[in-house]
């Protein structure tokens, strides 16, 4: 199974100037655990996760601050043609729960989560168990 098989929706993105509060509202509305931050050319430059927002609240960062203040830069990516086991290894090695899926030209194709990958591995295991 490939990473592309795990992408179930178009990626939801925001600009780095958006407030932490508005980023959280988007994540709640869209039922997302992360939000990809893109530059003016819509190229991914970072990610904000539930964990980042939790830390911001705990550190008493003003929620009207730009999300760029708390986003993780140096986005970890994977291409859609990679096997899901490679995605899991990358997540494990980098201690992350989300990977941005980018095409050959660096365009954002989607986002996969550890939950998506775990479901896929479980389905593969069930399929093998039946045979």
What does this 3D model show about the protein?
This protein has 131 residues and is an alpha/beta fold. The protein has helices at 20-30, 50-58, 84-94, 114-130; strands at 13-14, 34-38, 44-49, 72-73, 77-78, 98-102, 108-113. The strands form 2 sheets. A 4-stranded mixed β-sheet has the order 1-2-3-4. Strands 5-6-7 form a 3-stranded mixed β-sheet. Strand 6 and strand 7 (108-113) form a beta hairpin. Helix 3 crosses helix 4 (114-130). The longest helix is centred in the C-terminal third of the chain and has 17 residues, at 114-130. The relative contact order is 0.22.
Count of β-strands: 7
What is the global morphology?
globular
The biggest sheet, with number of strands, parallel, antiparallel or mixed sense and barrel status, is:
4 strands, mixed
Estimated radius of gyration: 16 Å
**Average pLDDT number:** 89
Q: Helicity range of the residues? A: 25-40%
Order of helices and strands: EHEEHEEHEEH
Q: What is the CA–CA distance across the termini?
A: 17 Å
Class based on secondary structure composition and strand pairing: alpha/beta
Report the sheet-strand fraction: 15-25%
The low-pLDDT segments are none
Number of helices: 4
Strand order of the largest sheet: 1-2-3-4
